[in-house]
Design goal:
By secondary structure, the chain is of the alpha+beta class.
Length: about 350
């Protein structure tokens, strides 16, 4: 009888071989194919028994009675957490990434779009890039412009050179002179702050004022109450290479294709998912596999996502989406390399 540690070691090797074979072929894997890949010779009967144990433990499934086994989401999770490493991209691929992202002077928004394209090409999956939500952007300069019918246009420049505008509807008349004072105050007092932190600080200062009247601060508070620098947006999402995933055998079923495409049409939900993946994440990649994803349309997929930074501040996320049998070791390396390259480019701007 095998010792428990020996059984676990053999189960692990069988599982690793089966996952790698299924990733390569997309087909159920039998004991003969596994035997050919093991470093230690095992009889077909021993391998079948180990596979039966793994199936009972929820790591394998048997799609047909006479067929081999396929990995479950649980197997992929174990493989990613304990077996898969980081596959080198190769010098030519790294050079392609570096040259594609840094070949010419481009705006940060153009860089984000390039990143999604590069990820799709390198990983042969769908490339995703999520830009920073408004409230996480770092203020460089802000300008409020008075428009007719009690409207104000907020033009926000954030680091590194991201520009956007937001229309605010106000409840009372203000002058352009007053708006200029507010613009100058925010730009000088809070340069380098996140917009979320600015909003919190302003309302704290208003609370501390109480009976003391400060006309400028009161004006800032009014603009914020009317929605200036209001959070809630999830950031701009760039998606590239959707057709790549549809050629995979997992999506031969028309119903699955419809569910997946519907999930990608809901870009706000996809952006929220990426933001959720980033919560509490360091600089490395995070992987969401199959039914770990709350979005039913993407439960045949895996997502690999990592943050990109402006200096030490997380700006957004890069990632790939592919079938659950994606080449995780290469996908993780590609996502982390692109995130690192983008962080260096943005931080040196």
């Amino acid at each position: 009888m095998l010792a428990r540690s020996e059984l676990e070691r053999r189960q692990r090797e069988v599982l690793a071989s089966l996952v790698r074979l299924h990733i390569s072929s997309g087909l159920p894997v039998g004991s003969k194919a596994i035997a050919e890949r093991l470093t230690e010779p095992l009889s077909a009967a021993t391998i079948r028994n180990l596979m039966a144990d793994l199936e009972e433990a929820g790591f394998l499934a048997q799609p047909h009675t006479s067929a081999g086994r396929i990995p479950t989401d649980k197997a992929y999770r174990f493989y990613v957490d304990h077996i898969a490493g980081r596959a080198p991209l190769g010098e030519s691929t790294e050079r392609y990434i570096d040259e594609s992202l840094g070949s010419a002077e481009v705006s940060p928004d153009q860089l984000l779009a390039r990143m999604s394209h590069v990820l799709a090409e390198v990983s042969e999956n769908i490339g995703l890039v999520l830009g920073p939500p408004l409230e996480e952007k770092l203020l460089e300069h802000i300008r409020f412009i008075l428009l007719p019918e009690r409207r104000v246009l907020a033009v926000i420049v954030s680091k590194p050179d991201l520009v956007e505008s937001r229309l605010i509807r106000i409840d009372e008349d203000v002058s352009q002179e007053e708006l200029d004072r507010v613009s100058n105050y925010l730009s000088s007092e809070f340069r380098g702050w996140s917009l979320r932190a600015i909003r919190v600080e302003i309302f704290q200062r208003l609370e501390q004022m109480k009976a003391t009247f400060d006309g400028l601060l009161a004006s800032v508070g009014k603009l914020f109450a009317w929605g200036a620098l209001e959070g809630g947006d999830t950031g701009t999402l760039f998606v590239e290479g959707t057709a790549k995933i549809l050629s995979q055998p997992e999506f031969a079923d028309a119903r699955r294709v419809r569910e997946l495409l519907a999930a990608f049409e809901e870009k706000v939900e996809l952006a929220r998912l990426l933001n959720t993946c980033l919560e509490g994440l360091g600089s490395g990649a995070r992987i969401v596999i199959g039914r770990e994803n709350p979005n039913a349309g993407m439960q045949q997929c895996a997502i690999v996502v990592a943050p990109f930074l402006y200096r030490d501040h997380a700006l957004g996320a890069v990632g790939v989406v592919g079938p659950t049998r994606m080449h995780y070791d290469r996908a993780i390396t590609a996502v982390e390399y692109v995130a690192g390259a983008a962080s260096r480019l943005l931080s040196s701007n």
